[in-house]
Amino acid sequence: MVFYECMMTAKNTSHYNILTALMKEVSLKIVNNGGIIRSIQNHGIRQVPHRFKAKYADREGNRYYEKGRFISVFYDANPNVMRQVEGILNLNEEILRNTHLRATNKFMDVNNMRENKNPYVQKILAETGEGAQK
Asked: Is there a contact between 5 and 100 (Cβ–Cβ < 8 Å)?
């Protein structure tokens, strides 16, 4: 499984219940396919760097947004599940932008089995002198 961070920008006018239902749908998709949700973070409403254009105008006729609600979802899943989550987010009208990143953490270095890529193994090999023999 791969550790992903999904950063999304929703409309600042979106209702709390709609976004909660979307997060539940995304979480259910990940968990039902063998993934693990690590955290969901709401970063609040912030100014966007430039106007974001929605796919469709809302009830008030707004199509361009200068503010957005930023939400992050951290999860472990396989790449097929990540594509399914992207599909859910792309079809939702409340989401203006979404980005998936392959997140890194310190445990990736510890679990790396390749000696030349693992800094912890390199340090031990250098201390014992075995690194010089190879």
From this structure: yes
Check pLDDT > 90 for residue 61: no
pLDDT class of 103 with cuts at 50, 70, 90: confident
Res 30 pLDDT > 90: yes
Q: What is the pTM of this model?
A: 0.76
Name beta bridge partners: 3. 76
Residue 41: its pLDDT value, please?
Answer: 95
- If you search the block for the tokens 């599909």, which residue do you land on? 87
Q: How far apart are CA 103 and CA 91, in angstroms?
A: 24
Q: How far is CA 23 from CA 5, 16, 55, 73, 85, in A?
A: 14, 11, 20, 9, 10
